[in-house]
Amino acid sequence: MTNLKDALAEAQSLLATDFSRAEQLIALIIRNPSDDEESMRVKENAFVLLTETYEKQRKPEKMQELAENITAIINSFSKAKAAKLIKILLDTIERMDAIAVQTAVCEFLVKWCITEKRNFLRHRIELRLATLLWRQHQYNRSLEMTHRLLGEMKTVDDKHLLLELHLLEAKIQHSLENIPKAKASLTSARAAANSIYCPPQTQAELDLMSGVLYSEEKDYQTAYSYFYEAFEAFNTFDERSARQTLKYMILSKIMVGNVDEAFLILGGKSGMKYWGKELEAMKAITQANKSKSLRKFQEALQENEATLREDPLIKIHINNLYENLLEQNLLKVVEPYSRVQIEHVAKQLNLPGDVVQRKLSEMILDKKVDGTLDQGNGCLIVFDEIKADKLFANATDVMTNMNGVVDKLFEKAKTLRV
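User: That's the sequence. What structure does it adopt?
Assistant: Structure tokens below.
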């Protein structure tokens, strides 16, 4: 025992000067056959020390080697301790943003769990693997794995895992643009959450997903309330998710036209805390939308394209916002005319003629513009507004009222005759 402690202390002292020697010492400690309680504690500390060192040195490939080697000696630990060590390993790789390595490690560990018949641990690792596949846009494979795990849950009473599986299923269905199924999965997740204690992070993810689905239905007021609840939770333990949710809060305010409230969020305590490229991009979009300037909106999109396009939800709604702004600018330009050249409209908006023509065609079909396109002469003909003649409606009302009066007089006459 003393030898193991001394070896660990020596390895710690060598980390800064002779890493390869320290690495060898830690490997020897982990492989030591001693299985008493104190020895197992030293082995665990050695394993944690090695993962922390690899994380500091940003060596995800070493973590993959460690995962493959640890399974050879992990049987010497209790099942609970083994699960804890594997979780530490996977969480460390996740913090290194090495998604390919984490996927490979999860796939390796799933095979090991099947061989060792560790089903509970396999379920957890497969859930993580399905999440990684979803993040890599392998939606069909991720959904297939999720459905298989949900089937296995019928014989296992694990409400926490069931909740996380339904939540992941909702995310996958949303990514596949199947909103009805995404809502059904989210409803199942909330039903599971109501029957158990739901951790704050999971509750925040449920609220975030609810906000996303409401925003897809263009109910931005309700979406904002869910985003706010999610942000309040994420703000305490997950800065990355908090920053993402804050963007969605700003987006909701922009989409309903409350740009002043969007500026308040950007200039508030939360905006200052998470200020960066993402919020700068949202501020540029908010300013362009406030000025109703298509040119400023295009400039904001070009300057922040990478930041705005990387989030699918932001990308979709920014595109919708651009289309709405384009419609408003087109209506403003064509309003004074009864006949106008499409080329002139395009020049006024600094847009290609085919883009303007396509958009005008959509607006005519959607009855947002009462007119027609003369493609031979390349112009838009706007019809005069036809005021509805109310003479017929008024005459019908008079006849109806007169009919009522005559009926009343007839009833009165019958009464007098009797």
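Residues 299 and 397 are 56 Å apart (CA to CA).
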